[in-house]
């Protein structure tokens, strides 16, 4: 869909809702006017908006469109699997005298949103720490196996209820350890006992043995079938993967974030030694280094190592610059020698002309050169 020539009213600058949105959303609010057909509609796929408005920023289109949708500037809808947008109050933004044929389906053809699967609140107890996770999932048993996969201890599903997760968190807020993990207080134990007909036995247990996930039997299973492998299902919709703290926690290996040059950064003794060995001015190089980092908005993990590289480059640059200066000096010396020779030659000719003696007139007449 090609863009259209549109008008932007001065009131766009006075819209307080747009004024407090991030810059990408404000840019998109204008771009949607250009991309809309004569009815204020257009394609709203993330890749389409990225290619037309936010080149090089893959996720900027969806985020900006969601921001505009949150303030009622635009509405998204889906028709036959394709996502489109409708600029709200289109007639307020634009006046089209002779609208053409619609380019995209209208919102009236939108498909109803799919129904979300019901979520159940669950109580999962960690075997060694005895902490209880109170969360929600569309499949508590699957959630149990996912937690066991990331934990060194067995996990037990103690109870399941239709009560809201937020209400349960509020009820046991004093027992919270972190995230969705709670201490097994008397009130929490009584709650699980009231919800499970087999308490204190678990509804299900999941653990790992020799790298293989084992799901212990559920109540009502055949006694000859003591356990079943966990089913290979897709992950549920629960984004929370908090785990109880293990007995000997290991710090995850991750790179430190890059940061701007700190205000209190200063060269160290190793930098002073390197600068002295190479005949560099440490204070001058440090000043140039900081000015360059702030002007270019550079980020680094270890600024000391970055300055070491800077000093090495300074030595290389000085050597290259010195070689060029020597070549230029050699050329200048040659030019000066040529100019000196030419000046000497001119002076020699002028001296010869001044020293020349004119021939006597009698001599000229004797050889017939005069009258």
Topology (SSEs and partners):
Elements: H1 16-19, H2 23-35, E1 41-43, H3 46-52, H4 60-70, E2 74-79, E3 82-87, H5 90-93, E4 120-126, E5 132-137, H6 140-149, E6 155-161, H7 165-171, E7 176-178, E8 181-182, H8 186-195, E9 204-209, E10 212-216, E11 227-229, H9 269-277, H10 282-295, H11 303-355, H12 361-366
Antiparallel strand pairs: 1-3, 2-3, 4-5, 4-6, 5-8, 6-9, 7-8, 9-10, 10-11
Helix pairs in contact: 2-4
Number of domains in the coordinates?
Answer: 3
What is the mean predicted local confidence, pLDDT? 78
- Which sequence of strands runs across the widest sheet? 7-8-5-4-6-9-10-11
End-to-end separation: 105 Å
Q: Biggest sheet, open or closed, and with what strands and sense?
A: 8 strands, antiparallel
3D shape: elongated
Helix content range of the residues, please?
Answer: 25-40%
The percentage of residues in β strands lies in 5-15%
Structural class: alpha+beta
Number of distinct helices: 12
Order of helices and strands: HHEHHEEHEEHEHEEHEEEHHHH
Could you list some keywords that capture this structure?
371 residues, alpha+beta, 8-stranded antiparallel beta sheet, 11 strands, Arc Repressor Mutant, subunit A, 3-stranded antiparallel beta sheet
Account of the 3D structure:
It is a single chain. By secondary structure, this protein is an alpha+beta fold. An eight-stranded antiparallel sheet has the order 7-8-5-4-6-9-10-11, sandwiched between helices. The protein has twelve helices and eleven strands. The protein has three domains: 10-109, Winged helix-like DNA-binding domain superfamily/Winged helix DNA-binding domain (Arc Repressor Mutant, subunit A), CATH 1.10.10; 120-229, no CATH class; 256-371, no CATH class. Helix 2 crosses helix 4. The N and C termini lie far apart (105 Å).
